[in-house]
Specification:
Elements lengths: L4 E7 L11 H9 L4 E2 L2 H4 L9 E9 L2 E7 L5 E7 L3 E8 L4 E9 L9 H35 L6 E8 L1 H8 L19 E4 L12 E4 L9 H10 L8 E6 L3 E6 L4 E6 L20 E7 L4 E5 L7 E2 L1 H13 L16 E4 L2 E6 L7 E4 H24 L10 E5 L7 H6 L11 E5 L1 H11 L3 H11 E3 L6 H10 L14
Helix pairs in contact: 3-4, 5-9, 5-10, 7-11
Length: 489
């Protein structure tokens, strides 16, 4: 296995009347890598002395190699999940081959809108440079914080791998996004590949390698490709499923021979889409709830006092409310039940945990969640059917993103968000996009596999799909108007 960035110590042969090779040629011959790019700023650091030993930082640069630095002892890289809501980075030590620091920041582009369409609209109104620069500032801020946290100088960052959806990748590269949201939905570039850090105005080593994951179209971005890589499904003989729920929901079904992808707006209610109480999974955020006769138990990250609720917590809450009759199968709150009251003219339910302030969920917020869960299940149902499979045929389901943080499989199935797969079938994998970006840093041979994955993907458009629209209305109910559809055993 060969890392994206490697450290090679070479000894330059003594000069002699019989050996008059240029210093640059001596380096090439000693490294034995072809083709090898040696930038001008590296050439300016020679001539070499007789018998001089060099510590070379070499990176993969597409089919060839690049000499990034000489006489360097420290070398790190960064894997970056370029998310719509958050930027998540992992600082990787190229010498020890381990992650030494990880950090998450809110994407500063949220000032232009929480959703990607609003940001594209701003970009299409002669603000493209402003929107892209905002993202770049956020990335550089994240890089700086990662380096400060680990005590690493920025110029010792020699590679950056970037996985984001198609629009975010275009913003990162400063490319036009105007044709992505309109027919025929064509991006500027499908396989961005490799760039030089200085060309992107990144505050790392100027010759650092920047690799941007490929996309398979407007709605199948590099984050999905990275997730497929992290899940291992691209190498599986039997069909498996990847569910990634973040700001949007993406579902992948496939194996080593084919991959089918669908996407839908199922995610916002699983992050901060539920006004007031929806939060990202972190300290003090509820991830599971149990409602009893007189009280309720709230489980929070780090056992801290509850300050909000994340995706898995919302799933748990809705399940418990349905189980105890606080809401009916249509999701409507029962006015006579304890905890249900009218707040600002709207039915609401108070989540009274044993500690912390009371959290309140409104009827409209419950309705929004049920539409989100319906979209997600229907997307999964239609995709499975389209390839002639049943839920019982799937024995491996990887769940990434917000839904994967503390998910209770039984409760998700109980409200009809997932089929009734057993807990053994479903495996939470965390941030699959970031994991895929890290995998490339660790093993550059996976670059070729990535190309294969991208070419293997087929995307099914769901926005106006007649089967999706037909099944969606029944999935809004809890668990479903046709519970037989949920069976997977």
């Amino acid at each position: 296995m060969s890392s994206l960035i490697t450290l090679r110590k070479i000894m330059i042969p003594h000069l002699s009347e019989d050996d008059k090779r240029a210093d640059e040629q001596r380096i090439r011959d000693a490294l034995g890598l072809k083709p090898l790019d040696i930038p001008l700023q590296i050439l300016r650091k020679i001539p070499l002395q007789k018998g001089h030993e060099l510590s070379c930082i070499v990176g993969r640069n597409g089919p060839g190699y690049k000499l990034i630095e000489i006489s360097a002892g420290t070398s790190c890289s960064i894997a970056l999940d370029l998310g719509t809501t958050n930027l998540v980075g992992a600082l990787f030590d190229n010498v020890s081959q381990r992650v030494i620091s990880e950090l998450k920041l809110e994407n500063p582009q949220t000032t232009f809108g929480s959703d990607i369409l609003t940001r594209m609209h701003h970009a299409m109104l002669d603000k493209a440079e402003e929107v892209s620069k905002c993202l770049l500032n956020g990335v550089n801020d994240l890089i700086g914080r990662l380096c400060n946290k680990a005590g690493i100088e920025r110029h010792n960052i020699h590679a950056l791998t970037v996985a984001g959806n198609t629009v975010m990748s275009h913003f990162f590269l400063g490319l036009d996004v105007s044709r992505i949201p309109v027919a025929p939905f064509v991006p500027v570039v499908r396989k961005p590949g490799f760039f030089k850090a200085s060309d992107l105005h990144l505050n790392i080593h100027s010759e650092a390698i920047v690799y941007v994951f490929p996309n398979a179209g407007s709605y199948v971005g590099g984050d999905i490709v990275a997730g497929i890589l992290a899940s291992g499904m691209f190498d599986s003989e039997n069909p498996s499923v990847l569910i990634d729920v973040g700001t949007n929901a993406e579902i992948v079904i496939g194996n080593r021979e084919w991959l089918l992808v669908g996407a839908g707006a199922a995610g916002p209610a699983l992050e901060e889409g539920i006004a007031g109480i929806g939060k990202r999974a972190e300290r003090g955020i509820i991830y599971d709830i149990e409602i009893r006769d007189d009280d309720m138990e709230c489980k929070t990250f780090d056992n801290a006092p509850p300050e909000g609720i994340c995706g898995s917590g919302i799933v748990s809450l809705v399940y418990e409310m349905y189980r105890t009759g606080i809401i009916g199968n249509d999701g409507r709150l029962n006015p006579g039940h304890k905890g249900v009251d009218i707040l600002n003219g709207e039915l609401s339910f108070a989540i009274s945990c044993t500690s912390g302030d009371r959290l309140v969920i409104k009827q409209t917020e419950i309705d929004n969640f049920l539409r989100s869960k319906a979209a997600m299940f229907t997307l999964l149902l239609v995709l499975i059917r389209s390839v002639g499979l049943r839920f019982s045929d799937i024995r491996n389901v990887r769940v990434a993103g917000a839904l994967g943080n503390g998910i209770d499989v039984r409760k998700a199935a109980g409200i009809g968000m997932l089929p009734d797969w057993t807990a053994e079938v479903i495996i939470p994998i965390g941030n699959a996009s970031l994991k895929g970006a890290l995998m490339i840093l660790k093993d550059s041979a996976l670059l070729a596999r990535e190309d294969e994955i991208t070419d293997r993907i087929t995307y099914r458009h769901m926005h106006d799909d007649p089967e999706f629209m037909k099944e969606f209305s029944g999935a809004i109910f809890i668990p479903h108007t046709n519970p037989e559809l949920l069976k997977a055993r």
